[in-house]
Design brief:
single chain, 184 residues, mainly beta, three-stranded antiparallel β-sheet, 12 strands, elongated, Histone chaperone ASF1A, nucleus, transcription
């Protein structure tokens, strides 16, 4: 059993222009006292093929999470328009224990620009839409009490993370996103 239960994540100001800040309200409950802070991170996946385009938009010790938009100069032009992923993660003592993934659709708001896109992306005309009604929630077993092995959380028998569709329906877990790994 986890020491922290994520109860709700609300995406605010959605849809919004691409260059608008991201805003999330996060509700959770601590089921037991914790000695350290929870760390929330917001990661924008800039390219499905290359993690070097991923951007850590924010890292905070308490909610709500408000983050600047991704830097479009760090995203290949061909990856700006279309579907990408936004990851909201929470860690305790450097151990990620929950990840909420959202698909994000970036497209021109103007129908004529959608039908006949310009050769160079007009970023100020791009609108993002976070598919907030279909989050993918993945929970990872961690040790919330490393100083007390009796209070340690044991991983499940199959040692695989549990993933839900946001409605607590169990799904096969996707592999961890490589930009979440610790270290270089």
């Amino acid at each position: 059993m986890s020491a922290v239960n994520l109860t709700n994540v609300t995406v605010l100001d959605n849809p919004a222009p691409f260059l608008s800040p991201f805003q999330f309200e996060i509700s959770y409950e601590c089921l037991t006292p914790l000695k350290d802070d929870l760390e929330w991170k917001l990661i924008y996946v800039g390219s499905a093929e290359d993690e070097t385009y991923d951007q850590l938009l924010e890292s905070v010790l308490v909610g709500p999470v408000n983050a600047d938009p991704p830097d479009p100069s760090k995203i290949r032009d061909e990856d700006i328009i279309g579907v990408t992923v936004l990851l909201l993660t929470c860690s305790y003592l450097g151990q990620e224990f929950v990840r909420v993934g959202y698909y994000v659709n970036n497209d021109y708001e103007d129908e004529q620009l959608r039908e006949e896109p310009p050769p160079k992306v007009l970023i100020d005309k791009v609108q993002r839409n976070i598919l907030s009604d279909k989050p993918r929630v993945t929970k990872f077993p961690i040790n919330f009490y490393p100083e007390n092995t009796e209070g340690a959380e044991e991983p499940p028998v199959n040692d695989q993370p549990a993933e839900t569709d946001g409605n607590e329906e169990q799904q096969p877990a996707s592999p961890p996103h490589s930009s979440d790994k610790e270290g270089p």
